[in-house]
Amino acid sequence: MDSDPFDDPRLTAAGLFFEAHAGLTAKLAPTLEKAGLSSLDFGALTRLSRSPEGQLRMTDLAAQLLLSTSGVTRVVDRLQRGGLVRREASADDRRSTYAVLTPEGADRLREVLADHLEEIERWFTGLFTPEQLRDLVAGLRTLRDAVHPNAAKNTAPPPTAAE
Fold first, then answer.
1. What's the predicted TM-score (pTM) here?
2. Cα angle value 110/112/115 (rounded, 5°)
3. What is the pLDDT of residues 113-126, one digit of tens each?
4. What is the mean pLDDT of the chain?
5. Which residues contact 95 (CB under 8 A, 6 or more apart)?
6. 99 DSSP β-pair partners
7. Cα 26 to Cα 49: distance, rounded to the nearest angstrom
8. Of 11, 79, 92, 117, which is most buried with the most CB atoms under 10 A?
9. Residue/partner pairs of 38-42 with CB below 8 Å, 24 or more apart
10. Tens digit of pLDDT for each residue in 59-100?
11. How does DSSP assign the chain, residue by residue?
């Protein structure tokens, strides 16, 4: 008797991961929305706030957010209209533009951060023992590094000659 091909632990693991991600995203969204931010906006502001001088090349921000160049342009346009970021031309490379966190953007991030962290604790990190959380973070880092290797480097790969 053959085993059920749909009763595969790989399907279960992937399915649980995707369900957990979707559920967590839904639980965290209302706090961000109250602050006038989408999860993508929050991700962009957070990455800028954690980068040297509060800035990233647009191409690096796109890579970290897993967006195309046109996708990151739309996000930065929206954040710029809200006064949360500004664009700056690179002094070293005329082809590069930086997204820069403004003081207003940092303030908006600070305003939502405490509530956001409380929700993360409630719906994610607080559900695990310290050992489970340590192991989960290690596993997620392994997964992230495999599927998105440039994220750990805080930079996108250098442009090719064709770019």
1. 0.81
2. 120
3. 999 999 999 999 99
4. 90
5. 159
6. 56, 87
7. 24
8. 79
9. 40/65, 40/75, 41/75, 41/78, 41/79, 41/84, 42/109, 42/112, 42/116
10. 999 988 989 999 999 999 999 999 999 999 988 887 889 999
11. -PPPTT--HHHHHHHHHHHHHHHHHHHHHHHHHHTT--HHHHHHHHHHHTSGGGEEEHHHHHHHHT--HHHHHHHHHHHHHTTSEEEEE-SS-TT-EEEEE-HHHHHHHHHHHHHHHHHHHHHTGGGS-HHHHHHHHHHHHHHHHHH-GGGTTTSPPPPPTT-
Amino acid making up residue 129: T
CA dist., res. 124 & res. 112, Å (int): 17
Q: Which of 56, 83, 30, 84 is nearest to 150 (CA)?
A: 56
